[in-house]
Amino acid sequence: MASSVSLAEIRKLSPEADKSWLDTIIKGDCVAALEALPAGSIDMIFADPPYNLQLGGDLTRPDQSAVDAVNDHWDQFESFQAYDAFTRAWLLACRRVLKPNGTIWVIGSYHNIFRVGSSLQDLGFWLLNDVVWRKTNPMPNFRGRRFQNAHETLIWASRDADAKSYTFNYEAMKAANDDVQMRSDWLFPICTGGERLKDENGRKVHPTQKPEALLARIMMASSKPGDVVLDPFFGTGTTGAVARRLGRHFVGVEREDSYIDAARKRIDAVEPLGKAELTVMTGKRAEPRVAFNVLIEAGLIRPGQVLTDSRKRFKAIVRADGTVVADNVAGSIHKVGAAVQGFDACNGWTFWHTEKDGELAPIDEFRTIVRAEMARAG
Amino acid sequence: MASSVSLAEIRKLSPEADKSWLDTIIKGDCVAALEALPAGSIDMIFADPPYNLQLGGDLTRPDQSAVDAVNDHWDQFESFQAYDAFTRAWLLACRRVLKPNGTIWVIGSYHNIFRVGSSLQDLGFWLLNDVVWRKTNPMPNFRGRRFQNAHETLIWASRDADAKSYTFNYEAMKAANDDVQMRSDWLFPICTGGERLKDENGRKVHPTQKPEALLARIMMASSKPGDVVLDPFFGTGTTGAVARRLGRHFVGVEREDSYIDAARKRIDAVEPLGKAELTVMTGKRAEPRVAFNVLIEAGLIRPGQVLTDSRKRFKAIVRADGTVVADNVAGSIHKVGAAVQGFDACNGWTFWHTEKDGELAPIDEFRTIVRAEMARAG
DNA sequence: GGCTGATCTGAATCATCTA
DNA sequence: GTAGATGATTCAGATCAGC
């Protein structure tokens, strides 16, 4: 499952046809490694970049941007600049491989997340949410000079400002959250216990292993089964393990052999879930469209029938062509519904009702019947 | 108490002896106004700058009513560069008037907070914490395209990296927080009800008035009685009102006359607390709400597992997204529980059971386990 | 006055498909 | 690409109307 491939091997293959990089860990620096992947090939990215600000020689590209600040903190400023250059480089590489409707998640702490967020904005990503991971069991502040650092911040962004059809499983998130919208503050324990990878001496393999529950929430929210999820700082492969379990493909980039080895073993041991368990809750948006006149043709509504709103303040009469008429307005169920209320818009399906045995029922119920028949007919 | 003084008036006085600007609102642009204050004269700054929301078209609620958006002229910026220049200018002005051991708080949303955080770091401030204000009652996401934006971010920073003796009332915070360290995630309602300033027509005076509880937490944590607290974007004077109540001096800078008038009346009506009452204040605590997917994420319930009612008449299968499926219905535990019984509503927590060692137990028992952990995290 | 249910509102970067 | 039509979408809490 999780085998390592060389860059050269990938490059000599046709990028179009080549899918050999799916479900693999690419060894190397993330900017260079990502150049080997085809543009627009990734559905979702999760990135947990280093936030050590004393980066030294690890940075890959010189900074090209002008410095217009004047202050007496040159040393410090230079290291922020270096971190910014590093950040822009890997974010640009990620942006190239991301599909137009793909999204990226980046996690960080107050040491680096403001640099990351600014860079995302500067490079043209469009921020969708910032999400707070509240830790149930954070490390205490030992010196008592600050608040206990009990959260980390995630940024969720689309590739472009006008990206509209990115994946967000709104109904699934809501249904899973006691039927109320999922908020931007999430509560999870940090990664400890059996989930935490240890070496033969009982020492943790990676210093900042993220909990699988966090990655699962992210992937369930913003990806679909079969999607390709990239992690440019793969570490010990939490992203890969969760992706495999949830029926997503992964690509990881990692420099350290010890992490790659641990990740590969870990991912190979994962048992993927079945199709039924992975089916995602969808809402009306995903249902096939039904035109109003189909209800007439099916005999569920007849021409001349009277429609009213739920409080019987307005009424409209159905015409044979699938339009309706109220006082001085005629048109679609939506147009007429909006007009009688004086609104710009209206969902006619839920606004208009018919009377059946003395009880009012929205015409949307007939649409449900039609949809069920459509589903049976394929 | 809260009188307005002209810049010229302040300037002609000796800056050393002059304290006439204490407990006043200075009318004008904040950068220019701050030039009139002596350097190193401020103990703590709270700043609620424009967020640069970049809103597109109008937004309507599902009932077609209009959302009252923040589209004020003061929140319009041409570009991120323009916003950054504005941010650096006012932060530099703040830095000059801040005492060497003073600290600054800035609040923002994901639209601007990354720019603010980066600028703070670039200008030599030293970040101490980022703090999350979790809203008990945030505005919903009306289109279902993102997570509900349920928090705002505060950054707390000292003037310099090597500042050691800034004020942090660690013991008071801990005592106020049930004798455990105060965390970086705080829970408060947004400012509504009697606290929200309204004009004679019942409309809100300021679009973004902050709750006094938030300011009280900030001042109790990071200032002492008698300290001078500056607010460069004073608005309707929440900072001034809380400062006066808590025995701190304030200085406010504000451009709009209507806000200044409202703030002055408001502050004059504040009754300062006595010395004894200034010691410990407590905040509201969370009512632990647990969603079904938390049990999955915690590994207490696994995707594919079968749930039944107490008499095993109905069964449902758990999916990875936190929804469940029975015969022809899918959705939340509540929705599906209601559907299989033919009811309108159902408490899925007590209706659905799992089998463990041949005995049925309601899934509510798992929730109890999770609640214990959540309680620890506040 | 008290209770019940309807209405209103809050820092919001909030569509998608067909012609 | 753009214009027009379809039709999807809200939580907590304060306030108010009506009994």
UniProtKB/TrEMBL annotation, chains A, B:
Pfam family name, one: RAMA
Domain RAMA residues, every copy: 277-375
Family matches, as InterPro entries: DNA_methylase_N4/N6 (IPR002941), DNA_methylase_N6_adenine_CS (IPR002052), RAMA (IPR040843), RM_Methyltransferase (IPR001091), SAM-dependent_MTases_sf (IPR029063)
Keyword annotations of the record: DNA replication, DNA-binding, Methyltransferase, S-adenosyl-L-methionine, Transferase
Enzyme class: transferase
Positions of the DNA methylase N-4/N-6 domain: 42-264
Regions that span the bilayer: none
Entry's Gene Ontology BP terms: DNA replication; methylation
Gene3D superfamilies linked: Vaccinia Virus protein VP39
Protein name, UniProt field: Methyltransferase
Claim: tRNA-binding is one of the keywords in the record: no
Family: Belongs to the N(4)/N(6)-methyltransferase family.
Assigned EC number: 2.1.1.-
Reactions that this protein is recorded to catalyse: a 2'-deoxyadenosine in DNA + S-adenosyl-L-methionine = an N(6)-methyl-2'-deoxyadenosine in DNA + S-adenosyl-L-homocysteine + H(+)
GO molecular function: DNA binding; N-methyltransferase activity; site-specific DNA-methyltransferase (adenine-specific) activity
Organism lineage string: Bacteria, Pseudomonadati, Pseudomonadota, Alphaproteobacteria, Hyphomicrobiales
